[in-house]
């Protein structure tokens, strides 16, 4: 299976308290996407979209210091698994009040 890419919208520099969404395209055959964060560790799961976008979305409504970290994504197609994406470093900056 092709290795997924991963990016953050609006970007990897995130103001604390602001929303950020991590996106990862995979395969039209994907069943589930998993997002993993190192330190502090975290694991999120998203079912594959039902439309033809083949892109998983992991929204964080209000970023915080615990949102920052290094993320990777993988997707599963039945019993197969893609390679892990390249790491995405998400960096928290200041706050919206600053």
UniProtKB/TrEMBL annotation:
Biological process per Gene Ontology, one example term: immune response-regulating signaling pathway
Signal peptide boundaries: none
Low complexity biased stretches: 52-66
Stored Gene3D superfamilies: Immunoglobulins
Entry-linked InterPro entries: Ig-like_dom_sf (IPR036179), Ig-like_fold (IPR013783), Ig-like_Receptors_ImmuneReg (IPR050412)
GO terms for MF: inhibitory MHC class I receptor activity
GO cellular component: plasma membrane
Keywords linked to the UniProt accession: Disulfide bond, Immunoglobulin domain, Signal
Region annotated Disordered, chain positions: 46-69
UniProt xrefs under PANTHER family: IG-LIKE DOMAIN-CONTAINING PROTEIN (PTHR11738:SF88), MHC CLASS I NK CELL RECEPTOR (PTHR11738)
Protein name: Ig-like domain-containing protein
Organism: Sousa chinensis
């Amino acid at each position: 299976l092709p290795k997924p890419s991963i990016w953050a919208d609006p970007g990897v520099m995130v103001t604390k308290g602001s929303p950020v969404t991590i996106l990862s395209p995979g395969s039209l055959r994907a069943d589930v996407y998993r997002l993993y964060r190192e330190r502090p560790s975290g694991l999120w799961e998203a079912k594959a979209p039902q439309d033809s976008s083949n892109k998983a979305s992991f929204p964080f409504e209000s970023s915080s210091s615990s949102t920052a970290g290094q993320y990777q994504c993988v997707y599963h197609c039945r019993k197969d698994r893609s390679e892990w994406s390249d790491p995405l470093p998400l960096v928290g900056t200041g706050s919206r009040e600053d």
